[in-house]
């Protein structure tokens, strides 16, 4: 394989990786900051147990979503690795 072709594949791989990271971080930012702070007033009427939804999202929900996003990242990166033939 030529050096130019390998460079193009490497650039494509990192663009896909950075794009995926950006999307997942935007989701996490929306859940933690958006639901926990920016939309707190409209969502205060919704309760999980005895706790308002924005407080719950800021304290617990963002952590749970972050863990889910870690597993999502791992699963999607397996696909990207296979697509660019850099998998194990």
UniProtKB/TrEMBL annotation:
Signal peptide: none annotated. The keyword Transmembrane applies. Keywords: Membrane, Transmembrane, Transmembrane helix. The chain crosses the membrane at residues 20-40, 55-74. It comes from Oscillochloris trichoides DG-6. NCBIfam families: Na_symport_sm (TIGR03647). Residues 12-87 form the Sodium symporter small subunit domain. It holds the Pfam family DUF4212. This is Sodium symporter small subunit domain-containing protein.
């Amino acid at each position: 394989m030529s050096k130019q072709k390998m460079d193009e594949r490497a650039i494509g791989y990192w663009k896909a990786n950075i794009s995926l990271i950006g999307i997942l971080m935007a989701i996490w930012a929306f859940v933690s900051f958006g639901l926990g702070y920016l939309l707190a007033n409209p969502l205060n009427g919704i309760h999980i147990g005895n706790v308002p939804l924005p407080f719950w999202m800021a304290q617990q929900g963002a952590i749970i979503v972050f863990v889910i996003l870690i597993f999502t990242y791992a699963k999607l990166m397996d696909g990207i690795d296979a697509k660019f033939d850099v998998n194990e």
